[in-house]
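Below is how a single chain appears once it has passed through the pipeline. First comes the sequence as given, then the structure the pipeline wrote out for it. We keep one example in the README because the format questions we get most often are answered faster by looking than by reading.
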Amino acid sequence: MKPKHPTIPMSPCKSSMIESIGYLGDTLAVKFKGAAGVTHHYPGVSAADFAALQKAESVGGHFGKYIRPKYKSIKIDPQ
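Resulting structure:
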């Protein structure tokens, strides 16, 4: 049985790489463009890191520099 992951409300963002982002508890959700709209969850993301991502001039650039190297991702299978 696959683990159940929380449903995280998503908001669209202006990015050539990322379609939408969401945050619930300490988990960041990122839905990528292309690749069949795959969503990844990043547990342990601080509220400050999420706020910085939301405010970034380049969401994709900020994600690649500050989120991806710091947090482990879990690929969420479409339901």
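The longest helix spans residues 47-55.

See the next section for the split statistics.
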